[in-house]
Specification:
The chain is α/β, with parallel strands linked by helices and 318 residues long. Helix content is 29%, strand content 26%. The two termini are 48 Å apart. It folds into three domains: 175 residues, Rossmann fold; 61 residues, no CATH class; 62 residues, Alpha-Beta Plaits, CATH 3.30.70. The chain contains ten helices and 14 strands.
Length: 318
Amino acid sequence: MPAPQSPGNADAIRIVGLTKTYAASNGAAPKQAVKGLDLTVPAGSVFGLLGPNGAGKSTTINILAGLVRKTSGKVTIWGFDQDINPRQSRAAIGVMPQELNIDPFLSPRASLEVQAGLYGVPKRERWTDELLELVGLTEQAESYSRHLSGGMKRRLLLAKALVHRPQVLVLDEPTAGVDIQLRDMLWRNVRKLNEQGMTIILTTHYLEEAEEMCDRIAIIDRGELLLCEDTAALLGRADSKTLVVDTGPATAIPTLPEGVHAQRRDDGRLAMSYTPSRIPTDDLIDALRAADLPIRDLAVEAPDLEDVFVQLTSRPTR
């Protein structure tokens, strides 16, 4: 697949003041799913869009894909304003949905050909065979889609999202409920596409995937942007560490600086959780030495993305 051309600026997607309010129904009040969202996705990045259920992720993605009408705001995809150039902006993005929306009576080859036709891709420019090989469906190319396994159907969804060679690929919970083999295949393909210049937007509940794959991450909750930062900077927000020390046979926990939570783990090691900005690691080691405890081995456990995510989204209900 040829590398996508530049969008004309550093942003593959730019969202300004985006709102979406669903009309009242069955006596319920109108629901505002997205509330003044401002967001930019750098071209060529792997960008994580994270948030708890009901945060507004799917609504935002559906607006980008042209499946849901926004209430207000501005959306620009690959330099095309969605209101001024709706066809070009829609052609610049491909979406692999979470739902298995596949015609059971079409073969994978036929599904890709139909999808290419819907996007107006001329036959001479189609790359159906390459796509089937990319997602590992060459042998199943002529089988009815209803005979495919769940994992193979997800592979077909990825291929369908790529038929028109989009500059931006959105993966909506791509590995939910899939096996390890499919997950590895998917991430290999994602890395390959990204290396060729494609911008990837990923939503997932597997936070370790986002931590490993994404250059930059945005976290939204209740339709609002909580933050958008490089992954390394985001992980640095969790001001907590755990010093794990092997002090030999289990003994009483020594007196430690105020604010340190200590416990013996099942393997006998002493785990001390603390806030590095307030308590230097040296103070913990000095406390162990003052108690005449041997330090046979030690390790520092840093927080992961899940810790940061929980901190940011654990807000009281309004």
